[in-house]
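seq as requested:
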Amino acid sequence: MRLVKQFLAVAAVALVGGQAAATMRGNPWLTLAVGAVTAVLAVLVYRWVVRRTERRAVTELARAGAAGRVVRGTLIGVGMFGAVILNIAFLGGYRVHGLGSVTGAVAIFGFMAAAATTEELLFRGVLFRIVEERTGTWLALLLSGVVFGLMHLFNPGATLWGATAIALSAGLMLAACYAATRNLWVPIGLHFGWNFAAGGIFSAVVSGNRESTGLLESSTSGPALLTGGDFGPEGSLYTVGAGLALTLVFLWLAHRRGHLVPRRRRVAGAPATGAESNADESTGVPATVADESAGVPPTGGGSTATVLR
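struct tokens:
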């Protein structure tokens, strides 16, 4: 029941914010403002509904270190898309013809801030997190990835392959990112960085939506498996490969930090304690897993394992 309540609360903000942004499409500064307000309001509503339904501190959206985590995630997302588009360009699938539009990039910034925030709260903050408590990390990773991919079938230029590519790359990667960091700020930044780089910088089609007008005037051509076709670079095999590679990195970090949640096996006749609905307030890991790992010394503190926290 709490999954439904939380999902509907955040979805309502996403719906209203999306409609408001659509009406402001001709004014980039208003679009920026509406996008920023939608993102902030979605975070506030998520915090409120989680506190109300789970009676705990919302550690996955802790204020301490939030800005730095969003920035780190954004840099990862921009760097990932930059690597993908450079590979596509190397094979002649992407060309830059000149400078694009600064105001277009401003509007995309606002729109993508709202989209990244609301989608991460819905699919990683609500769906993945709650399903993980019941089924463990692996099944939750698969289920949330599939649902995230299916959602993109409703986009104007959607294809079955495009939705599959989104599920394999972004759906799995972003859930693994949350599992590794146990906060939503890094996935929000990563999602935003990828989307803004695609539409706001390189003017590529994002997830099958209409052409973007960003900082660069560009065009794509060539095989759909290379460029992503009408779905945009997210349908490219380069994106799938990059997404799966980052998924493995995040899962390795999650394993190293003891953040992977095993599938629950309730002992016959044992009463439910309700612990699965709570999280360790210092790590965000479900309490049942945090209890199991209590007293186990850390496995290491290398720079790769600390930079994403």
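The first helix runs from residue 2 to 23.
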